[in-house]
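Here is a typical sample entry:
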Amino acid sequence: MHSFLHIHHISTSYLSNFYTSYQPVFVLNTGRSGSAFVNNLLQNIHDIKSYHEASPNMFLQSNYAYHNQEKKEVLQKMFEVARIELMLEASLKKKIYVESNQCLVFFIYQIKRLFPKAKFIHLTRHPGDFVTSAIKKGWHKNDSVWEYGRVKMEDEKRWMGLSQIERLGWVWKETHSYIEDFKSLYPKDFLTLKLEDITTEASKINTLLKFIGSENRLDEKKLASILQKKINEVKISEEPKNMYKLATYPNYLNWSDSEKVQLKNFVSETASLYQYIV
C-alpha cells in the first residue's frame, strides 16, 4: 500500500485494498475475563495499536446486536462507522489494530464480512471466577447505561425470575456458545487461550504475539514484570445509589452448594469444552 500522511489524503484504491487485505485482531470474551490485561500487555509492543474498549465503546449496542443478527447490513454499518477511522490510522502507521472489547462479540460476523482477513483471540475464564468478578462490579444489578445495553434474555418474564448468578451464568454460556459457532466457520483465524494460562505461563504471551502477527517477542524479565501486575481490579469509590458494586465477594470455591448449582445449570456443558470443573 502507498503511504499517506493523513487519513483524509488516502486514495480510493488504498481504501478498497485496506478492506480486503488489512488484518485486524479482536479479542473476544464475556468481559471480566482478562481483556484489560491483554490490552495492557500489548501497549508495550511497537508494531501493535491496541485498544481496550475503544471509543465509542458501543456499550449500548451489545444486546441490540445479539437480538438482531438478521440485520446484517445495519450491524455492519454500526461497526464500520464506529471503528473505520481508528483502523485506518493504525494502517497508515503500519501497525496491527487490536481491540479487546466484550461489546463487539455479537458483531463478529459483520467484522469478518467487512475484513475477510480479520483474526480473533477467544479468551476464556472459569465461569465461577467470571461470575464472582461480575457480581463485584454489579453486573445485571446496577441501573446504568452499561446495564441497558448488556446482553439479556428476550423472555423478560423468565429473565426477571432468575437470580444474579443465573443471569451471569447465562451470559457466560451464551457468549461462549456464540463464539464457538462462529469459530467453527473460521478455525484457522482463531487462537483460544485461557486467562488462567496467559497470566501464569510466559510462553503463552509470545504465542499470542505470534498469532497477532507482531515481529516482537518479550524476554523473560519483561514477561515476569507484566505478569506481576494486577489489572482492572474492582475499585469502590463514591458510587451513586444506582450502582451496586461490592468490595469483596466469596471465591467460587467458597460458594454455597445452592449457588454452585445455580451456575452449573447454565454453564456445565460449555465449561467442559475448556476443561473447567464446575
About this structure: The mean pLDDT is 93. Residues 72-92 form the longest helix (21 residues).
